[in-house]
Hints:
Layout: H1 10-20, H2 32-45, H3 48-68
Helix pairs in contact: 1-2, 1-3
Amino acid sequence: xxxxPRPPNAFILFRSHFCENHLIPQHQRVTQQMRSRVAAKLWxxxxxxxxxxxxxxxxKVKHEHKLRYPKFQYxxxx
Length: 78
């Protein structure tokens, strides 16, 4: 049994979508750190209604993760 990743939360799903769909203009070189900052600012400005689809998707992914890995428990390493 290898490493089981944690299911992504709503913001991580939003950020992945944001980066995969190139929602930052491509005329300049953009680092992952800059993309994360922009995505975080947008996320912070979004209303609860705008975040609802991402929260719903996160719950769906979490449920699928629970079915796939029923004994999974998050245990951070120190």
